[in-house]
């Protein structure tokens, strides 16, 4: 009886590990999607209204109030750094090295030139992160699904062995 | 820097100058003070960042004219490295010097002579003449408040946000109960539309500088709208020597000359026709 219980626990544990791995891939994709959405909104606000950066940032944060959003946390830190005059380093733990570099470049360059150059830059970053979003989505579907299935199978195997 | 902040809060400071790597200087109405602190490029970048909302694109139109404005009518004059597209200035980068001009409201500064400008509901178009830093804008603001509070529908063309200190279109300084403000628009663009649409009895604008702006002021008066304006000059003699500015002396019925000595806002001469 004890063996069956231990086997069951191992199975559930392994499946939970699979869920966590799949969530990690989904979070990576969601973050890239949020960045692309923010850049797209910012591009339009700057192009048509010349909305100041911090106002556009606050609006985006307000629109996502109540949702779990890693990028909103990054934007909040960005606002705080600007207000205090301290250098800003985005918390990019989830991103790939390449995405991390691009996000740092985005924050370092935004707001430092005229409308035309700013909009051109934003088009580049928007395109980059949309592309990254598609890649991460596909990665989440492929790898996230695969790891979930593998972990679940591993759990079942462990349960059989132990029981 | 703490001392500067306190002095600004007390209303004593008129001007603060920051030059990268040089001592900060502070102007009060009485004298110039050199502060024992060398401004850093980071200080200048941060000041520009705060004034622009960290968005150069939002302020580029004024930046290429050499200034930024901040809430409360504070103006930042800037110098740096220009960026051109071969013909026109597109933006300014590497800003290395700043002058922060802090406006003041001096209520009562026009009391002694305002009856000569407005009496029996009749307004005399008035030109304020002085060299830079002698109190033209402060006096114009006070004249706007007095005329407006006397029931005159007043329109301020506040190209540089200094007269009204407008933030999001709303004046932060007391410019009277019957005053409308157009801010951030070149006066030669604003005046024609607003004369038609707002039907003011009085238009107020600061710093006539070019022949087109002089023509604008003359057109305003020709249209039957009174005008309060200011112009940079040592006095009326200097204006009369200029072909561009000479017509102003005939068109304005009151001319006030200010001097910065012994302190800004000192009235040197008032001519009423």
SSE order and pairing:
The complex is a heterodimer of chains A (163) and B (273).
Chain A: H1 2-49, H2 53-63, H3 70-84, H4 97-109, H5 115-162
Helix pairs in contact in A: 1-2, 1-5, 2-3, 4-5
Chain B: H1 2-9, E1 13-19, E2 23-28, E3 32-38, H2 41-52, H3 56-63, E4 67-70, E5 74-84, E6 89-101, H4 114-117, E7 118-119, E8 122-123, E9 126-130, H5 136-149, E10 154-158, E11 179-183, H6 187-198, E12 202-208, H7 211-222, E13 226-232, H8 236-240, H9 246-251, E14 254-259, E15 266-272
Parallel strand pairs in B: 9-13, 9-14, 10-11, 10-12, 12-13
Antiparallel strand pairs in B: 1-2, 1-6, 2-3, 4-5, 5-6, 7-8, 14-15
Number of strands of chain B: 15
Using the CA coordinates, give the radius of gyration of chain B: 19 Å
- The chain-level structural class of chain A is mainly alpha
Number of helices of chain B: 9
Largest sheet of chain A: none
Sketch the topology of chain A as an H/E string, one letter per element: HHHHH
Oligomer state of the chains in this structure: heterodimer
Task: Provide a descriptive summary of the structure in words.
The complex is a heterodimer of chains A (163) and B (273). Chain A has 163 residues and is mainly α. Chain A has five helices and no strands. The longest helix of chain B is centred in the middle third of the chain and has 14 residues, at 136-149. Chain B has helices at residues 2-9, 41-52, 56-63, 114-117, 136-149, 187-198, 211-222, 236-240, 246-251; strands at 13-19, 23-28, 32-38, 67-70, 74-84, 89-101, 118-119, 122-123, 126-130, 154-158, 179-183, 202-208, 226-232, 254-259, 266-272. At the A-B interface, helix 2 and helix 5 of A face helix 2 and helix 3 of B.
């Amino acid at each position: 009886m004890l063996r069956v219980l231990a086997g069951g626990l191992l199975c559930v544990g392994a499946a939970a590990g699979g869920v966590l791995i799949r969530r990690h891939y989904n979070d990576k994709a969601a973050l890239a999607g949020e960045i692309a959405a923010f850049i797209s909104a910012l591009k339009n606000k700057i192009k048509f209204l010349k909305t100041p950066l911090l106002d556009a940032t606050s609006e985006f944060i307000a629109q996502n109030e109540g949702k779990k959003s890693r990028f909103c946390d990054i934007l909040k830190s960005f606002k705080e750094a600007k207000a205090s005059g301290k250098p800003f380093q985005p918390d990019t733990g989830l991103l790939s090295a390449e995405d991390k570099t691009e996000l740092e470049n985005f924050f370092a360059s935004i707001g430092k030139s005229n409308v035309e150059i700013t909009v051109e830059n934003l088009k580049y970053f928007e395109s980059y992160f949309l592309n990254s979003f598609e890649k991460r989505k596909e990665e989440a579907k492929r790898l996230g699904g695969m790891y979930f299935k593998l972990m679940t199978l591993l759990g079942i195997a462990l349960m059989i062995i132990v029981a | 820097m703490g001392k500067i902040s306190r002095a600004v809060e007390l209303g004593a400071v008129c001007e603060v100058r920051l030059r990268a790597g040089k001592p900060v200087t502070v102007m009060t109405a009485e004298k110039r003070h050199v502060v024992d602190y060398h401004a850093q490029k980071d200080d200048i970048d941060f000041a520009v960042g705060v004034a622009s909302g960290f968005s150069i694109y939002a302020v580029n139109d004024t930046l290429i004219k050499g200034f930024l404005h901040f809430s409360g009518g504070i103006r930042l004059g800037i110098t740096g490295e220009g960026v051109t597209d071969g013909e026109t200035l597109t933006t300014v980068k590497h800003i290395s010097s700043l002058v922060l001009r802090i406006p003041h409201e001096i209520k009562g500064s026009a009391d002694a002579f305002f009856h000569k400008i407005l009496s029996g509901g009749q307004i005399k178009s008035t030109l304020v003449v002085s060299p830079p830093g002698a109190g033209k804008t402060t006096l114009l603001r006070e004249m706007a408040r007095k005329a407006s509070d006397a029931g005159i529908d007043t329109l301020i063309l506040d190209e540089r946000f200094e007269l009204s200190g407008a933030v999001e279109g709303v004046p932060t300084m007391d410019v009277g109960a019957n005053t409308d403000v157009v801010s951030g628009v070149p006066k030669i663009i604003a005046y024609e539309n607003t004369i038609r649409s707002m039907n003011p009895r009085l238009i107020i604008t600061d710093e006539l500088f070019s022949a087109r702006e002089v023509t604008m002021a003359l057109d305003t008066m020709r249209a039957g709208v009174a005008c309060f304006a200011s112009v940079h000059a040592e006095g009326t003699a200097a204006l009369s020597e200029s072909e561009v500015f000479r017509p102003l002396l005939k068109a304005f019925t009151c001319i006030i000359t200010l001097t910065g000595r012994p302190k800004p806002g000192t009235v040197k001469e008032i001519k009423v026709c």
